[in-house]
Amino acid sequence: MMTTRRKFLSHSSLVLAAAALGSTILGAPAALAHHGWRWTEGGNFELVGYIKTVQLGNPHGVLTVDAEGEIWTVEVGQPWRNERAGLKDEMLAVGTEVTISGERAADPADKRVKAERVIIDGETYDLYPDRD
User: Fold this and answer.
1) Integer Cα distance of 5 and 128 in angstroms
2) DSSP codes joined into one string, 35-93
3) Distance CA 43, CA 41 (A)
4) pLDDT for 68-119, tens place per residue?
5) Residue of 81, 65, 63 lying closest to 130 (CA atoms)
6) Are strands 97-104 and 123-126 parallel, antiparallel or unpaired?
7) Does 129 sit behind a cis peptide bond, omega within 30 degrees of 0 on the bond before it?
8) Residue 67: which of 89, 35, 45, 87 has the closest Cα?
9) CA distance 87 to 53
């Protein structure tokens, strides 16, 4: 009886481990699809508009920008990245005119941009200095 129970526990542990690994692997593409650059089209894109809403913090800040009547979502850097670039939270106020240089979503219906640079009042804040 004890041997059967041990085999059952070993088998159960193996099944649970496989299930956990499987859910991690299956869930990873969804998590990675948004973060990083894989969701972008890879080219340079520029957007000029006015900030409508601001949400700053981790994993990255998000602005809603009105560009000639089109509403865009702009991902700016994590708090440490913005700070390193000299971009202060108060600079990203509602109503501020911004130029965003970065990469847009590969899906044309997705009005979203990952900012590499933010330009406010002629001053450039380089969030990703190694990207062009």
Assistant:
1) 56
2) SSSTTB-SS-EEEEEEEEEEE--SS--EEEEEETTEEEEEE---HHHHHHHT--GGGS-
3) 6
4) 999 999 999 899 999 999 999 999 999 999 999 999 999 999 999 999 999 9
5) 81
6) unpaired
7) no
8) 45
9) 17
Distance (Å, whole) CA 60 – CA 114: 10
CA-based nearest residue to 102, from 110, 112, 92, 93: 112
* H/E stretch holding 119: strand 112-120
Please state the pTM of the whole predicted model. Answer: 0.71
Count of all residues that appear for the chain in the document: 132
- Computed from CA positions of residues 77, 78, 83, 85, in that sequence, does the dihedral angle turn out positive or negative? negative
What are 57's two structure tokens? 């913090």
Strands 70-75, 97-104: pairing kind: unpaired
What type of residue is 66? D
Terminal CA-CA length for the chain: 67
